[in-house]
Design brief:
The chain is an alpha/beta fold. It contains 7 helices and 10 strands.
């Protein structure tokens, strides 16, 4: 074991950055592939991509012999903006799916422990919460308040940070007005296509519970199947 590589791998884990330790089984030589450095030219690029998506370690066969990939991928997080009925249904579903969930809503009438007993509830403005716990590439953001004063800031931050999923509740007309505000705020319009709006898979969802299923489906799709969004 190359302890300098192990130390570097632990630093990547602590910073919530993805990395893969590549170990040749014939001679035990090792190298570390950091996702943020890019790996398109790596001879194992295709396999590395699959492993970064799945998060699973394992042995693969190569022309130079068997290689073991030790995959370190941050646990995916879900930040929900808005303690509404959809959120009440989405939180337990997302937690069962293995997501670390945070609910943010400054409206104390909605953000109560009675309504969200098992979630990480933050009854504060998104600006303050995200200043303490910044977004990252392994975070999904779902904004469901219908209130631009609450939704806009975290959505813009999610686009700038490169969150793997960015979704917003609202009709197409509402979303068009949202994009006008974002452009006026200096957000690059090239990022707008990354917003899932209207939020969730198109399954004809009507009730809060059905919408929650649609949203979770979109999040899992973005995490496991979507093309890379970051360079």
């Amino acid at each position: 074991m190359d302890f300098s590589l192990l130390e570097l791998l632990n630093r990547e884990r602590a910073a919530r950055r993805a990395a893969i330790l590549v170990t040749r089984l014939d001679d035990s030589s090792q190298r570390l592939v950091r996702k943020e450095d890019g790996y398109a030219s790596d001879p194992l690029a295709e396999e590395l991509e699959k492993r970064f998506r799945s998060g699973k370690s394992g042995t693969i066969e190569t022309e130079e012999g068997n290689v073991f990939l030790t995959v370190s991928v941050p646990a995916p997080r879900l930040v929900i903006i808005g303690a509404v009925h959809i959120t009440q249904a989405l939180v337990p579903m997302a937690e069962i799916a293995g997501l670390d969930v945070t609910v943010i809503d400054p409206r104390t009438a909605f953000a109560t422990e009675d309504r969200f007993p098992s979630s990480s509830l933050k009854a504060d403005w998104p600006e303050e919460v995200l200043n303490e716990t910044p977004l990252d590439a392994y975070t999904a953001v779902a904004a469901v308040t219908h209130d631009p004063k609450i939704d806009d800031f975290p959505l813009i931050e999610a686009l700038k940070t490169g969150c793997f999923y960015v979704g917003a509740l609202g009709s197409r007309k509402t979303h068009a007005k949202r994009l006008e505000r974002f452009e006026a705020a200096g957000v690059d319009p090239a990022l707008f296509d990354r917003i899932d709006a209207p939020i969730g898979l198109d399954i004809g969802a009507a009730s809060p519970e059905e919408i929650a299923v649609a949203v979770l489906g979109s999040i899992i799709t973005a995490l496991r199947k979507a093309p890379e969004l970051s360079p």
